[in-house]
Specification:
By secondary structure, the protein is mostly beta strands. The strands form four sheets. Strands 1, 2, 3, 4 and 5 form a five-stranded antiparallel β-sheet that branches. β1 and β2 form a beta hairpin. It starts with a strand and ends with a helix.
Length: 99
């Protein structure tokens, strides 16, 4: 699910329901090799649009050695907290010493 090519096109990364896997890509002739598991975990892989289409909610950097991903909370949703800071510039001024 939600595949993305590496920057040089030599690999394709994809979610397989249990984490992220990678497969080598050959272009002449076109061939995708066997998947190799990179890591396991519960990640949010896509965003559903109003028409039901999925958009990718993760990415790989240009060196193929880091990933930007959203993990699911291990705590129940009832324990999740959202903190809103009003007048954040004033709060920043109180917390950061002036030079």
């Amino acid at each position: 699910m939600a595949p993305v090519f590496s920057a040089d096109g030599s690999e394709i990364f994809a979610f397989d329901g249990d984490g992220l896997s990678v497969s080598p890509v050959q272009y002449s002739p076109l061939r995708v090799g066997n998947q190799r598991k990179l890591f396991r975990g519960q990640y949010w892989y896509g965003v559903a649009a109003s028409d039901g289409a999925l958009g990718r909610a993760w990415d790989v950097d240009s060196k193929n050695d880091r990933f930007l991903m959203i993990t699911f909370l291990e705590t129940p949703a009832a324990q999740a907290q959202v903190k809103i800071v009003l007048n954040w510039l004033d709060e920043l001024g109180r917390r950061v010493p002036k030079r």
